[in-house]
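Q: Joint fold for the lines below.
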Amino acid sequence: MEPVKLKGNREGLILKLDLKTSFPILCENIMAKIKSADAFLGDNREIIINTGNHVLDSDQIEELTRVLQSLDLGIKKIISEAKEEREVEKPINSQQKIELEQSLSEGSTLMVRKNLRSGQSVFHEGTVIVMGDINPGAEVVAGGHIFVLGHLRGVAHAGARGDKDAVVYANKLQPTQLRIANLITRAPDDESVAPNEPELARIKDGMVIIEKYSLYKEE
Amino acid sequence: MGEVIVITSGKGGVGKTTTTANIGTGLAAQGKKVVLIDTDIGLRNLDVVMGLENRIVYDLVDVTQGNCRLKQALIKDKRFEGLFLLPAAQTKDKNAVSADDMKKLCEELREEFDYIIVDCPAGIEQGFKNAIAGADRAIVVTTPEVSAVRDADRIIGLLEANNLKRPKLVINRLRADMVKRGDMMNIDDMIDILAIELLGVVPEDEQIVISTNKGEPAVLDMNSQAGQAYRNITKRVMNQEVPLLNLDYETGIVKKLKRLLGLKG
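A: Joint structure:
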């Protein structure tokens, strides 16, 4: 395959990179590709980088940013289709918004097989399953549903793009804050009863309700 | 025009956040309009100590990056009308805030509040530089330990180099009984080394642990000795003259009396 491909979809322009090519050669190819497609780019100066089955390290991200900057381009986000879950360290340049996604399709599911601790966050367009706990100070933001097969004590935002049908399930649902679509809720200040069975939060009649999962019925 | 006061220490764990929460709450209890800013990005705590963690939607980084308006990020306290918190970001890049951003922010808040209390992160890196950038005054917190006093001395030097002249000192977690036995540095030893004005001495007090965990500042607890110390410090911040707590006396006769009367020492 070509080392660099430029495609467009409704999200914007995507630069697909084949990381089997050595990185310096890849950068040269990017330069050539962008220059030949400059008319195609027009006013759209923010592009999405797709790294296929590979994940860029922070040095590569930095280099890539530099190359694109010389072409007057910015990175909208970096996505990869890597099957295994990896963490991308945020690079020093805070301008870059980098999200790790498993794939492009909206319905995809991200599996997080660890505890999310304070300061850690997961962003994903589709549904997120956490096999572990989400501690206070950690957050999960999902376009779809959030399932926590552990203790949810941090912040969870399901349906972050506005999907009011999104739900949050947790074996122990005790969030600092719970958000579904554009609604934000928190527990009352004087209440700290630990739930003893799995619960499900969803929007019903314009309000976030929490119910025992065992009592949940399809509507 | 409000006043910007930074609470700093150099060393971690000496009680910057506790001091910020208590002075801020104390000032609000005196009817002042106060905003607390947590500048410890990535290791925020002030929201937890204030019991406001679950109200956070936007934070300091959102404000400086223009993701929201300043007003939207200010969290109103549960207890006082005039008390607000601007929380630090927990999951964002800590280099997202610059000293210039902080200066601008402090200038903006100055218009509306009487006091802007800035909780500084430990260390002397960028976070420290940001925290002091917009400040008019500084309060240095230390504990009666050689290491904490050493770091406080370093910090005072840096503050003076940054035109924050005459910072004031809070000595935290003093144990009068240990000082008496000669097992702990006494107040005079510390003043001797640091050569700055003493703003107050806060005794070691179990109530602080309890109140910190509950998210209710001890300054509001009339039975807590540390609370009393913070009430006095608050008044001194407002330039009122208040004599120092006589801790020695307090641990002796008064404590026994209070116990007899069924009050907590």
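Q: Anything notable?
A: Residues 27 and 67 of chain A are 7 Å apart (CA to CA). Chain A touches chain B through 17 residues (CB under 8 Å).
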